[in-house]
Amino acid sequence: MSEQMKCKKEKHLKKDDMLNLKDNINRFDDLKFNRRAFLKTAVGASVALGLSTLPFSVKAFLGDFEDDRELVEIVKLEDLPKGSSVTFNYPSEKDPALLIHTKAGELKAYNSACTHLMCPVFYEEESEVLLCPCHQGFFDLNNGHPIAGPPQRELPLIELEVQNGVVYAAGRKIRHG
């Protein structure tokens, strides 16, 4: 083979290689998986998600969730003098809770299981704190946050409602993770 023939053949091979690279793109896949198709899918998914949550938004806007609260009667306010407390169970019979009528006349309620090792928490009337006697843990009466001892997390807060002189438990807030 002459030198000239070899060069022509190599040139021919290079052209074929370039043609193969150009032809390996599948037009169907290129049209199916492109940026525009991705954006259409993302927008469609966002709209579908927004429409699926619309009934909950309307229900919340109308305030229908507030009526779903279950009120649990705790005690008549006249039976709970200032500076005293009463125990009850909320939200289930397995969850002990404590309702306190402070010396200032405020009503406070917390679940009474210590957040350290679940010992019962008691109201100390003289110092107006909540005490866990197991490991000398103290909680602030105003917000249920630990102020001394081993507990690191606050007591779950029980929301209260007073209707016609009767104190009701209306919900519970767990404020830590």
TrEMBL record:
Gene Ontology molecular function: any one: 2 iron, 2 sulfur cluster binding
Transmembrane segments: none
Keywords carried by this UniProt record: 2Fe-2S, Disulfide bond, Iron, Iron-sulfur, Metal-binding, Oxidoreductase
Entries under InterPro entries matching the protein: Rieske_2Fe-2S, Rieske_2Fe-2S_sf, Rieske_Fe-S_prot, TAT_signal
Pfam families the UniProt entry points to: Rieske
Location of the Rieske domain: 72-169
The keyword Disulfide bond is annotated on this UniProt entry: yes
EC category: oxidoreductase
Enzyme nomenclature, EC number: 1.20.9.1
Name of this chain's protein: Arsenite oxidase subunit AioB
